[in-house]
Amino acid sequence: MIKKLVLLGLIVAQFTTSCSSDNTEILPENASLNDQIANLIKQPYSKLTPAEQKVKLEAEANAMLVEMDHSKTSGAIEAIQNLENLLNVSSVAIFNNKNNNQITDVLNVAGTYGIYTWNNTTKAWIKTASSSELKFIFPAKANQTTNNATLVSKAVESTVKVKIIDTYGQWNFDTYTYSQDINDEIFLPTSVDAILTIDNVQAAIFTTKATYSNGKETPDESSFKMVLSDGYTYEMSGKKGDSNSTQSAFTYKNKNLVKYNFGSTAKIDALLQDDALTAYRGKANGLVELMDNFIIVADTDLAGLADGETALEKSLTNPSFPDYADPKADFKAYYTAKNSYNLKLSEGNAANYNKNTKLILVSKKEGTKIADVVMRSEKGYSQTNSLPVWVANSYSTNGGYWSWNNGASVTTQNYDETLYLKFNDNTEVEMSAYFSTGFDTLEKKFEEFLKSFEK
Fold this sequence. Notes:
alpha+beta; two-stranded antiparallel sheet; 10 helices; globular
């Protein structure tokens, strides 16, 4: 359900005590809530209190929130998610008969072919040889048993060959040795075109392009585009140079939902053409456009971010899992140290982001600053484990063994970094309350894409 933050008492007080202006009117006390909000929206942000700004922000952002949330029910997205799940249930070997390839491999590989059909009875992929295409035939929904979706991918190879880990090695508890990782050697593609079909109707088109130089795997230029038949389009592109330039956009029926731009200050200045936004020229190297109502002006120090990440990694030690052969191994201390590491890493990431990335949310129409955008660390996924108990056994080489039976419970806590809006009254509200959790997902994808050009 879409989160609502309407402050009814505040709005009533606002309209029953204030004088009307050119854009507002005094409403009767029995005016509907919708009328009160509509009247509030007519006022510029600069004339509203922080509490009133939140009400107007929610009303104006609601359209974007609705469209972003609708994208989560896209049939094409659901089919791709189910394909990813099925690849996890039963691994396939699209690279030289090695295993555990994922959907990202399918959309970023050249020179490999085969037709993979999902067998719902055996819960496994059946491979048929092909010399011209890479194809997957599978159910579009998780609760279906009939194969009604296909993903066909065709690619053009580059001359850049890379190694990627296909299957991680495994620890042998009998010999206390670790088997080597299995690597795939592949040629990176200069282009990949993939088509998703559901019930014999085209549901999505995926297109990737890249150019390389000097045999390096970091592309000079790269682009990705996903076009869904239900109206959504997502695309990213980037170019490496003296001032790396990247852009990304998520649209619905050609209407902008979220658009990112990162590059030189001069490039961003060229996008700030409206008279209301001239005050922000010369101060940013990044710009986020949220529908037609808002922009986020960004001043990001990429070098500072990278240095901060390196310093954080060096300052923390990820605890090693205890040795099963050691009767004095302290598993409780390990989980305690692991939780401390997770917390410090997340808090450090948030602090580094806030230090090197300055973001402000601005009304695109008025140029008024609404809030700062900050990152906070907060509790995320957690899991409960049992602490093993040492059982003495004279027949054991080590005088005993660790048993997982009847051990005390211990919780492993993970943390997420989340964007918040910090208003002028110092109150903070999670950004997804206004712009959907989809905004966080797209923002993280854009960050990862941007960093790929810094290698």
